[in-house]
Amino acid sequence: MKRIVSVVLSAIAIVTIVWSQMPEKKSLSKISFPSVYVTEEGFVDAHGVLIYYKAIGKGEPLVVLHGGPGASHDYFLPYLLPLVRKNRVIFIDERGSGRSQKLENPSAYTVENMTDDVEAVRQELQLGKICLLGHSCGGVLAQAYAMKYQENLTHLILCSTFHSTKKMNEVFKKMKEKMVPELQARIEKSERTGLFGHGKEYEKNRYTSEYMIAAWGEGYFPYLYQNHPDCNYDPIAAGNMAWDVYREMWGSNGEFVIDGNMTSVEYTDRLSSIRVPTLIIVGDQDECDPSLSQEIHEKITGSALII
To answer: Where are the domains of the chain?
Structure first.
């Protein structure tokens, strides 16, 4: 037995010596493949709130802010994937949304707090100066960031967004007036009777399925997919979001009025302070009417507007 052990130990020693003299081997994770884009994900502790991020790609940092409020970064994929060929694209889920931390006190869901969350992500990931893209309500957040942390931006991209809650509410009013009478009556009936507290326990803190179909499926759909209708669009599936965030920020009285804490969004007189190169993108039949983007364009000197 002792001889067998001695032989085995000798063999291990020989193998160890031979291996130590071989050229250094790189682990697969350290090898660079030019056509492979590895996903990095994690959480940044932003002043006590864990913010989820997902980073893909190579190049200058492009931070992307989702809409909702209360949605997540998921709806950007796969549509924004081509950007990863030239940028390191960093998606985040805003506080309370997606994979980010939920808060017991919904009053902490504000544009101001979310603006500071974005700055915390930028600092902790050591991104340096960033290009910032905001879509819909994420565009509102991007404007707020640009007005507070402009020195940290290289470029700003505002997509289908608004700068004034009052003016956005005027757009919604006109949108409802253009609906066929039957749809308008159905939506207004649901709003009058209250949109929450119906159905089973798990249904009471969200819109009813009937209202989601009427508001998002019939009311919004023509503004979302006029030229290329999406056969996979499901208005009820769109209700899989952070309703506590939504109700705190947007409000509880329906899709066609913003009366939550986002009534504080009145940036018209402050937009002229933005001096970074800014691109504004909007659809010609957009839910966020092109007139809103036109006003943003007029206020931000040197900005470009693409309708």
So the answer is: 40-166+265-306, 172-263
CA 254 to chain centre: 21
Cβ–Cβ < 8 Å for 27, 96 = no
CATH code, 40-166+265-306: 3.40.50.1820
C-beta of residue 273 within 8 angstroms of C-beta of residue 144: no
In the chain, how long is the greatest CA-to-CA distance?
96
For residue 150, what is the DSSP state? G
Contact in structure between 61 and 131 (CB atoms under 8 Å)? yes
Q: How far apart are CA 204 and CA 187, in angstroms?
A: 18
Distance CA(38)–CA(49), nearest Å, equals 26
**What is the spatial distance between Cα 66 and Cα 160, in angstroms, rounded to a whole number?**
11
In sign, the C-alpha dihedral spanning 96, 98, 100, 101 is positive
Q: How far is 223 from 211, CA to CA, in rounded Å? A: 17
Strand ranges across the sheet with 153-159 = 40-46, 49-57, 87-92, 60-65, 130-135, 153-159, 278-281, 304-306
pTM to 2 decimals?
0.88
How far apart, in whole angstroms, are the C-alpha atoms of residue 226 and residue 239? 21
Residues 6+ apart with CB under 8 A from 48: none
Residuewise pLDDT in 10s, the chain (307 residues): 434 344 334 443 433 333 334 444 444 445 567 789 999 999 999 999 999 999 999 999 999 999 999 999 999 999 999 999 999 999 999 999 999 999 999 999 999 999 999 999 999 999 999 999 999 999 999 999 999 999 999 999 999 999 999 999 999 999 999 999 999 999 999 999 999 999 999 999 999 999 999 999 999 988 888 878 889 999 999 999 999 999 999 999 999 999 999 999 999 999 999 999 999 999 999 999 999 999 999 999 999 999 9
In the chain the first and final C-alpha atoms are separated, in Å, by 84
Query: Does residue 56 contact residue 78 with C-beta atoms inside 8 Å?
Result: no
